[in-house]
Amino acid sequence: MLTGYDDLLRKKKIASKRMAVILISLGILIIIIAGMSYVYLTNMTPPSNPSMLIEYNYSELGKKLLDPVAQPMIYEDVDTELLNVIDGELSINTSSPLSLVIPSINLSSNVNPLIEEYSGKDSTAAGLMTYASPAYVVGHLPKSANPGEHGSVWLFGHLESPFLNEGSIFWNLPSIQEKLTLGENVNVIVKSSSHKTIYRVNSVDIIEADQFEYEDYGKATLHLVTCYPRLEYDKRLVVNAELVITERIN
Which of 88, 90, 136, 229 could form a disulfide with 167 if both were Cys (CB 3.0 to 4.6 A apart)? Predict the structure, then answer.
């Protein structure tokens, strides 16, 4: 039979064990949260990969068009404010985009084709194929136009990827809206194996994810798409741009 003192000791031991379990659980929870935060913040930092950096040196024609900026380099912007939009019929045939630079938001990336994904047992069944953005780089919709052509170029990228670790190449894309509001000139420089092309941004749209559709607008345009807003992703942010310069490089 327990005395009053023994019973008190027993209760203290039980309370101590419970407190130890609570403290250990809290410690594990803190470690998990810290780890998730580290992964999240790591993925939120825009990648800096020297292999993605491209140098742009324009020909004599380009130098005259872009004067006084004679030879814009990576992240150095060009002045297209006084250049007319090219919206007529273009006869050139260009190749697929290889790289993209948006100097005003310090963005530089290689461009790969979007990844084809299939669902269902029969992967060849019509209507079951979808596209996914490649990790860490910008993705080009293969069925859309190539840069410089008479048609709409569609490019996609991840805004952020805190858990899937697929990069955040379009992390700064939402800031373009503010730049347009302030009257700043935002250019998108796209390079293929045959041409260098510059588009000037004219608008930004935010669309519900289930209402988003890509289409060809019948003129030389470029559209950058990412999920929006951060941590919700139920909308699509679409940056729209018009062609102002295209130049053959070989």
Answer: 136
